[in-house]
């Protein structure tokens, strides 16, 4: 039987597929591996040749049947993170243990406050533009759900969220999706660990940020900052660079609407979707 040659250096998927051929050392065919994992040989062939992105369920089954610990799951996570902007995977690790999270977003609702339907619309839109594959779109939605779940702990972090007014004025996914998303924002504002504010268009040049900004206070009370452009993300840990961003965030909060006024604006926009 001919086995397609793979260049592990050509892509993360090819490297993963080459490693999956560990089955050959066990003298297992794709059919045999498929029987043991519960997947068809056709599906495994697509993964081995790098044509299809493996799922978390598949890699866990492969780890189990090959008896290699979590080797494939770790590689899968590294491969998935490789599709994210520089600095973001490390940011997410800090996010999961932060005691306080400050967010500022422009244009779209912050990921941690998105409904699954809203997140799905954004991911599917990226697929239609040819920016990502359908498999990667699925992984993005799953990854976001994991981030949200990581914050649902016994002592959740304090979340301070300022959204540019464009986040609620820009309709995503049609009336039903947008209405549900805006309703979730109202509900989030009612949580004891969340402060949600809208930075209205009327603050004009007094808005201190032109890009989204994330600031995390860690358990040792140090603060890290993460900001990104369309093509690049950057995690900043040096206090001399983070402190001015923290000061600017406080200035933004002072210019933004109060939480009560923000909820009124969100609800008015939501009623316009009905």
UniProtKB/TrEMBL annotation:
Domain (HTH cro/C1-type) spans 21-72
Q: Cross-referenced Pfam families, in alphabetical order? A: DUF5753 (PF19054), HTH_31 (PF13560)
So which domain of life are we looking at? Bacteria
Q: What is this protein called?
A: Helix-turn-helix domain-containing protein
In terms of InterPro entries, this protein maps to: Cro/C1-type_HTH, DUF5753, Lambda_DNA-bd_dom_sf
